[in-house]
Amino acid sequence: MRDRDDSALRSTRSTSEPHDETPGVPGFRTWRGVYWFVFACFVLVVVALTIFSRVFA
Q1: Would you say 31 and 23 are in contact if contact means Cβ atoms under 8 Å apart?
Q2: pLDDT per residue over 16-44, tens digit each?
Q3: CA of residue 31 relative to chain centroid, distance
């Protein structure tokens, strides 16, 4: 009986709540923008570490 109640509750939740794809991050309208920003920061850190390791070696 409980399994049936849980599945009914899940199905009503998924249809009644709108699927919100906007991130809660200021300055970004989509998750794709957030992912690109994080990836660009990662690449920038790797490049900076490479440069610093060659300059200060």
Answers
A1: yes
A2: 566 678 999 999 999 999 999 999 999 99
A3: 6
